[in-house]
Amino acid sequence: MSTVAHARSHAMTHAWRGAVAGIVGGVVFGIVMATTGMLSTVAMLVGSNDAVIGGVVHLAISAVFGVVFGLLAGVIGDRMWSVMAAGLVYGLALWVIGGLVLMPAFLGMPLFPMGEMSMWSLFGHALFGLVAGATLYGLSRNEA
Q1: pLDDT per residue as tens digits for the range 66-76
Q2: Max CA separation in the chain (angstroms)
């Protein structure tokens, strides 16, 4: 196998592991969102206010962000504490970029909102990162 093909193979492996990790993290974060009423706000991104649609949108976003996480952290996926720390940092970065900037901007709301929902969002994004990290570790360890 050529070096390029080998690199592509590793990237694809990291990407699919990341997608799975993102979905698992998204499900856990989605539970937080469902209990705090945030899924209706996510649904507004596609012109709805239905929590079920918000859940589907949230999981799709989680899968995409999971792929990015897998590509970034896949090479350390077999080191538990490293990938967990990377997941936490990634989740916190997503909170700032997504929760405090992009989502409010897309919805025509003020940027950097601070309040009870923002704190729940912080908790959920941190939880997403930790669960995605743990899942990526489990997938990497099981196939190593």
Answers
A1: 999 999 998 88
A2: 53
